[in-house]
């Protein structure tokens, strides 16, 4: 083989054997087989080596074989060579540990490192520690990571203070969910390289529940103040932090720094900018950056598709896929999975089936990530039979696959089946498993199953205050108890938590408010506002607090809530303002409800319905009719509640012709079937107008038992 063939990457094994090749050429051939993943040729070279050499006593060639097999994902062959090697050196151990880690066998990699650490002949090098820490990070094994950290501290200074080892420690702690330990390692580093700053920033962005996002922004400022130039990895991490933090202001500042650095042309950085603007709702800026990119990697296209999907531009996201095809760029599995997510959000089953077929045509249907995305798409589109079929045909299922199937069953109303599938899981459950199953229990109202899952979580994590138990699990548990009408149990879960976010507070306030514990709900709201500075009330908080005020008839507290809302960003939220109106109506102040309605810029059908009810309650029947007609003129179709409101107004105002017209138009014009309440209002109206016979005829003709009609309506026709 000539030197030019080596340079071109040609992997050719001499047919006559390898005796004519020097050690350097053999090493080059083995490396080429690994780099090109040419396993058959690598095995051929191995056989010819074994025919001329006793590889058990040749660490150099054995190590190269282990490296080649690892890169070709042939772990049994790599392990066989490693096991047979009599005199293993540090390189042998390191290469085998790295091969296991790179091929998804992180637990075995950790076990092998611990065997190396106890070896009396070979001692771990800094490369050994870095590989072992990477394995701990991959499988989120914090306890092994802590154990290895202790060994690093006891190692010679050349290892303990090695910047690469320290960076690996920061990354391990960050991925294992211990931000405080990652920060301690970082702060103790005598010399912080740009790689160390980047690792610490990444650790922060991975742990938002531990205050990582604002910490990442502050860390970036410290880097700037120290006069250290950020690289692409720093910018990618801090852009991610700004996006997750929801801070457009910070994102724009960082974008400005990127422009100053000249790294805006870096394809990965540009893609991160697109991602940041997309997640912050500025699709215009995201696509402006994308359109200006000179070099668009496939990852950038995927990011642009995700940005459009995140902002509800589903058609544009799919159009980008077709544009990708027109430009001759073959989409990868990530592209099609992003489009599947679009189909899920849009519930576009036709497009979803096409993408499913395309994944199959590319041979990716057996991939666990692709299969899981297909299951999720069918579940979100309500096609549970297809979701089950894909799930059952998958040869390999990870925990995400099981979670997707459980969620699909719950989403389509098959809650009992979802819980049963959860119990059949043959893989260790994670936080999403618990949340999906608890959600099914909540929908089914199955307190017994919910308590069993609660007990399982406690047994696994020792307590709900465990620092690695996600708040999402606790929130799902609170919601489950709330939906099962166990507000006191929900509060017990809440009280046991050390980490609470706004969803935690909302779920517990809702548990009280929705189960008639209105005073307790408002007390908890006050506690949230006055004692927890880390959270701010959002739209859900205000809706539940207003519901509690309405339940108690506490108009003073309701007015205070209205004042707070008016001064917040939720003053234009339709659901919140409808809740304000409803609270005033239920507290006996329809005039205040009407004033709120008059100040609304965006009025939904619910807004009009509440305004009609408020006006009817005031006795202004003609005004209620005007509002009803105004609602229809706005293009909003009245529902059952709106008709109940207008018929009530007509009944109490004696507007017989208008009331009868509204009643007959319900089914004819709007497809709304009259209920007992509507018949009751019309019968009452006929009775009040002296049309007793007509009222009795309607009473006998209606598709309900007379018992369902209000006593007032019955009295009016006697």
Structure write-up:
It is built from 43 helices and no strands. By secondary structure, it is mainly alpha-helical. α7 (106-117) runs antiparallel to α8 (126-138).
Strand and helix layout:
Elements lengths: L2 H6 L14 H13 L3 H14 L6 H13 L3 H10 L5 H13 L3 H12 L8 H13 L3 H13 L2 H4 L2 H13 L3 H10 L5 H13 L5 H14 L6 H14 L2 H14 L5 H13 L3 H10 L5 H13 L3 H13 L6 H14 L2 H13 L6 H13 L3 H10 L5 H13 L3 H10 L6 H14 L2 H15 L9 H13 L3 H10 L5 H12 L4 H14 L7 H14 L2 H12 L7 H13 L3 H9 L6 H13 L3 H13 L6 H14 L2 H15 L5 H13 L3 H10 L9 H6 L2
Helix pairs in contact: 2-3, 2-4, 4-5, 4-6, 5-6, 6-7, 6-8, 7-8, 8-9, 8-11, 11-12, 11-13, 12-13, 13-14, 13-15, 14-15, 15-16, 15-17, 16-17, 17-18, 17-19, 18-19, 19-20, 19-21, 20-21, 21-22, 21-23, 22-23, 23-24, 23-25, 24-25, 25-26, 25-27, 26-27, 27-28, 27-29, 29-30, 29-31, 30-31, 31-32, ...
Provide the descriptors you would attach to this structure in a database record.
elongated; 43 helices; 718 residues; disordered N terminus; mainly alpha
Strand residues, percent:
under 5%
Please state the CA-atom Rg, rounded to the nearest Å: 33 Å
Ranges where pLDDT stays below 50 over 5 or more residues in a row are 1-11, 13-17, 464-468, 710-715
Overall mean pLDDT stands at 88
CA-to-CA gap between the ends?
110 Å
Structural class of the helices, strands and pairings?
mainly alpha
Which sheet architecture does the biggest sheet show? none
Please count the beta strands (DSSP E, at least 2 residues each): 0
Number of helices: 43
- Rough outline: elongated
Oligomer: single chain
Give the helix level as a range of percent: over 70%
